[in-house]
């Protein structure tokens, strides 16, 4: 039987395991990336492994998230990352050079290679035909050390595109359409391959918008073929030699095929507070808009920015709207400047921010109280913007401009003619903001600089045979890692200081949780379905671990988060009967007994000592995962090898 693109790349990188959906496989990783909000912890973890030089083909450390420097913390962490990168053979992308996924696509991504990144939107690389995964920092540290990356062999979904997008309907609308169809859980356990005749009408940046937002579907990753369009893009980046053709076999089998006719799509909008709460823009016509933000790893390519500039040209934004524009990379910004498009943006009244994540992760530009914000980003989770009662909506750059000009939600097709914008034949190449590591000889003398905000890694505990602990927090469905460990300008600087960070754990759901958990000493958290969706931040596991959480029981888990829980030595268990969730109450005294035998049998019984009821819980751990849990997490396990 023929193979899909992803299956071919997996086969080429398979270290162990069988390519049977649901079974654990280990993959050789060619490239890694980190960003600064997860990177400090990832490099601290890498350092504990005592490896002199990374063993990947390429590893890049980006600075793009924590670029507001309101105190010494972020600046210190950046110096730490820069020095650790220099010492251990990692390229360092300076602050200002751009958002990791945009820069990686431009300068480093290679079709057919594997990439893992300590950021959930690493699948952006699928736009160029890479098999790219978001992962926890510890998994990235292991991959930098030459270790394999373990995942569950995914199912294969195909989205078959036909037709061609009409003017003012964009790749972002394709992303929102697939979210409407599949929901934020619909991609769990699957790799989504984009194919069909319609693919030939999409440029690499458009493809990357789509693979970027595959993360919001919960998919393991998403991928496009590598074709002539990919070759043209790489050629324009001066990297034609990196191109290889990649396509699935004609008789490849898929677990699910979804058809989307690009001709029939309309401008779409995801309403608060979930990326799958999708409506037609026309349904929200006239809703007052306070703020518009254009940028993020989803929509910050040169093409996106040139379209925005062309639509803003000769117009000024509505006086009641605040518009921010963050180009995705220095390459994008410098080409906007040299083409004159930057002047059209500035003349419109927009505020141009640096090439970084910025408002997407609440690093400034939080909306006004109860403000309506239209953003070209990928997530609109409650509180993520930094304003608790803001209503964040996700839209295309075209829809964002229409709202900025009119002050209300407006169908962009009312803006008139879409100006013709051609993809440049050559991008402006300047890699001076990527600092190369020291040579192996010089590396010995490089001193790693550590600021006072870097606190020791919290001690994990081995999973013993019994856990008796209260249920300190019960939460509902689709809890994101932004709920568990919020980010934003005030909290992000403490990503290397777990004790400080712990005060904010579950702050979006229940601000009293940290105190309650500390008072309890050890505790158990209960969640609904798709627990831990969203960001890859391992802090959403490390901080609960620090607060004494020993087990999380949920209806189902998101892929990266469940791996992070195991890496942190927290036992993730699922309800065999999802209705049992209703029988548990916050504050109940719970007991898990005969855990080790239960892990082997695939079932552990939960006793509710308060109500006297008991419930069967499922666990399907591999031998490696069992050993990791019994050792107290990945770092403790690695030390035993
Ligand atoms: C995000 O978009 O939520 C982030 C911030 O990029 C995270 C990483 C982090 O929390 O540092 C992600 O997507 O993994
Ligand atoms: Fe940065 Fe936002 Fe992309 Fe995360 S989703 S990497 S915060 S731009």
Provide a brief overview of the structure.
By secondary structure, the protein is α/β, with parallel strands linked by helices. The chain has three domains: 5-264, Aconitase, domain 3; 268-414, 2-Layer Sandwich (Aconitase, domain 3); 467-639, Aconitase, domain 4 (Alpha-Beta Barrel).
What does this structure look like?
This protein is of the alpha/beta class and 641 residues long. Helix content is 29%, strand content 19%. The strands form six sheets. It has a seven-stranded mixed barrel, surrounded by four helices. It has a six-stranded mixed β-sheet with strand order 7-6-3-4-5-20. Helix 7 (204-213) links the parallel strand 10 and strand 11. Helix 2 crosses helix 5 (137-144), helix 6 (171-182) packs parallel to helix 7 (204-213) and helix 9 packs across helix 11 (341-347). It is globular and about 70 Å long. The two termini are 38 Å apart. The relative contact order is 0.12. The model has no long low-confidence stretch (mean pLDDT 97). Alpha-methylisocitric acid binds next to helix 2.
């Amino acid at each position: 039987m023929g193979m899909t693109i992803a299956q071919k790349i997996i086969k080429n990188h398979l270290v162990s395991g069988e390519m049977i959906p649901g079974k654990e496989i280990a993959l050789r990783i060619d490239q890694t990336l980190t960003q600064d909000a997860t990177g400090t912890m990832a490099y601290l973890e890498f350092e504990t492994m005592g490896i002199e030089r990374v063993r990947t083909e390429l590893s890049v450390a980006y600075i793009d998230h924590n670029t507001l420097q309101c105190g010494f913390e972020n600046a210190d962490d950046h110096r730490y990352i820069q020095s650790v990168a220099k010492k251990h053979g990692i390229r360092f992308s300076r602050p200002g050079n751009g958002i990791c996924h945009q820069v990686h696509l431009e300068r480093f991504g290679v079709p057919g290679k594997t990439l893992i990144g300590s950021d959930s939107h690493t699948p952006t690389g699928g736009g160029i035909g890479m098999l790219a995964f978001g992962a926890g920092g510890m998994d990235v540290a292991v991959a930098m050390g030459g270790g394999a990356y373990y995942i569950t062999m995914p199912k294969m979904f195909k989205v078959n595109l036909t037709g061609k997008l009409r003017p003012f309907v964009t790749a972002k609308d394709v992303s929102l359409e697939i979210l409407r169809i599949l929901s934020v859980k619909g991609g769990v356990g699957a790799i989504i391959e984009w194919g069909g005749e319609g693919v030939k009408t999409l440029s690499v940046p458009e493809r990357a918008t789509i693979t970027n937002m595959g993360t919001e579907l919960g998919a393991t990753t998403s991928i496009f073929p590598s074709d002539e369009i990919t070759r043209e893009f790489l050629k324009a980046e001066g990297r034609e030699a990196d191109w290889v053709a990649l396509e699935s076999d004609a008789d490849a089998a898929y677990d699910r095929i979804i058809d989307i006719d690009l001709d029939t799509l309309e401008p779409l909008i995801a309403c608060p507070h979930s990326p799958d709460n999708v409506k037609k823009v026309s349904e929200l016509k006239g809703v007052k808009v306070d703020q518009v933000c254009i940028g993020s790893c989803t929509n910050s390519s040169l093409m996106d920015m040139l379209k925005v500039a062309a639509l803003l040209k000769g117009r000024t934004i509505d006086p009641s709207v605040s518009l921010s524009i963050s180009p995705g990379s220095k390459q994008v910004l410098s080409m906007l400047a040299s083409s004159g498009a930057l002047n059209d943006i500035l003349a419109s009244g927009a505020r141009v921010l640096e090439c970084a994540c910025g408002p997407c992760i609440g690093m400034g530009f939080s909306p006004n109280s109860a403000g309506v914000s239209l953003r070209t980003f990928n997530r609109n989770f409650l509180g993520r913007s930094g304003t608790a009662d803001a209503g964040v909506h996700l839209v295309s750059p075209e829809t964002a401009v229409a709202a900025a000009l009119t002050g209300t939600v407006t169908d962009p097709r009312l803006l008139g003619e879409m100006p013709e914008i051609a993809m440049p034949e050559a991008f402006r190449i300047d890699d001076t903001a990527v600092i190369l590591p020291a040579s192996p000889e010089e590396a010995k003398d490089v001193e790693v600089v550590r600021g006072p905000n870097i606190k020791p890694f919290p001690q994990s505990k081995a999973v013993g045979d019994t856990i008796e602990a209260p249920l300190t927090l019960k939460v509902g469905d689709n809890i994101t890692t932004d709920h568990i460990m919020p980010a934003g300008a005030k909290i992000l600087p403490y990503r290397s200081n777990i004790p400080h960070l712990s005060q904010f754990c579950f702050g979006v759901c229940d601000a009293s949780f940290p105190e309650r958990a500390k008072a309890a000493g050890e505790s158990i958290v209960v969640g609904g379905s798709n627990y831990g969706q969203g960001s890859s931040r391992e802090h959403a596991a490390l901080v609960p671990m620090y607060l004494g959480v020993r087990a999380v029981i949920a209806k189902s888990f998101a892929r990266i988060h469940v791996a992070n829980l195991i890496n942190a030595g927290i036992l993730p268990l699922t309800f065999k009967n999802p209705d049992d969730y209703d029988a548990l109450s916050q504050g109940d005294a719970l007991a898990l007994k005969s855990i080790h035998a239960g892990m082997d049998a695939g079932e552990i019984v939960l006793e509710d000592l308060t109500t006297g009821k008991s419930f069967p819980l499922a666990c399907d751990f591999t031998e490696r995962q069992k050993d990791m849990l019994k050792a107290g997490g990945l770092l403790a396990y690695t030390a035993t090898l």
